[in-house]
Amino acid sequence: MLDPEKAKAASRLLVGHWDNGTRLDAIPEGLRPQTRTDGYAIQSGVTDRSSAPLFGWKIAATSLAGQRHINVDGPMAGRLLAEKSVEVGGTVSLATSRMRVAEIEFGFRFGRRLSPREAPYEIAEVMEAVATLHPAIEIPDSRYDDFCAVGAPQLIADNACAHLFVIGEAAKDDWRAVDLATHEVAGFVSGKARYDGTGAAALGDPRIALTWIVNELSGLGIALQPGQVVITGTCVTPIGVEPGDEVIGDLGRFGRVSVRFI
Q1: What residues contact 180, with CB distance under 8 A and at least 6 apart?
Q2: Helix, strand, or coil (residue 218)
Q3: Closest C-alpha among 121, 111, 65, 99 to residue 233
């Protein structure tokens, strides 16, 4: 296990690059996480940069193709910081962006606490704790020059590439009886391109993805809190963006959300 002081030092290093819009090759060897648990220990320090309560969580690498792209063997959890939330229709600068992609996702806001426990949570009890469903756009980024080369522990330490995000209004239609795995999702770029997918891209079903992160956090001794939002992974191929683009995420009957890039 990584020494707590070394974990704090690694976290300060990554947060400094995040704040400055700069990057590094890798965490220095003496501070480098060797396991996923080490990575989460470093990641936990990211909340020190925020004066607001934790907004919620994201899941990265929820598709096999995404896992292969960044050379990991499973999904990863990351923290969403309140000050990184972008209003619907808002504007995002790409000046320091490394990834330059937008992802269309399901978001779930929790209505009650799910505490850590020894027994795994089942899908039904996780969904009972959810208050609302939201359309969402994630705009991830990395603090590494080559995020495909550093491996899962360092990517987890880097907050699982969390950066900016947009959360739309709560869906007005009843969504609980809908098969979210087969529900169609679309992304549009400035009227010039369309990307299609379904909820199945998120670990086979957004509800499965949501249950995965509840259990991942439970194993780390972390509770999902009322009011926190979880975005469950992109449902379409990550959308490459350039200055001047507007991206619209369309969850059909569950609403739309948009963001502009400069």
Answers
A1: 106, 199, 205, 206, 207
A2: helix
A3: 65
The number of beta carbons lying within 10 Å of the beta carbon of residue 49 is 15
pLDDT digit string, tens, across residues 148-178: 999 999 999 999 999 999 999 999 999 999 9
Q: What is the pTM of this model?
A: 0.97
Domain ranges, ordered by start, for the chain: 52-261
Q: Is residue 235 within 8 Å of 107, Cβ to Cβ?
A: no
- How far apart (Å, rounded) are the C-alpha atoms in residues 187 and 11? 34
Scan for tokens 């999902």, then name that residue: 224
**Which letter does DSSP use for residue 202 in this model?**
T
**What is the C-alpha to C-alpha distance for residues 227 and 129, in angstroms, rounded to an integer?**
11
Cite the beta strand spans of the chain per DSSP E: 56-60, 76-80, 91-92, 101-110, 130-139, 164-167, 184-189, 193-198, 229-231, 239-240, 246-250, 256-261
Q: State how far the alpha carbon of 104 is from the alpha carbons of 144, 167, 184, in Å.
A: 23, 10, 11
Instruction: Compute the distance between CA of residue 157 and CA of residue 145 in angstroms, rounded to an integer.
Output: 15
CATH top-level class of 52-261? alpha beta
CB atoms within 10 A of CB 156: 25
> How far from the centroid of its chain's Cα atoms is residue 147's Cα?
15
**Residues 61-74 pLDDT 10s:** 998 889 998 999 99
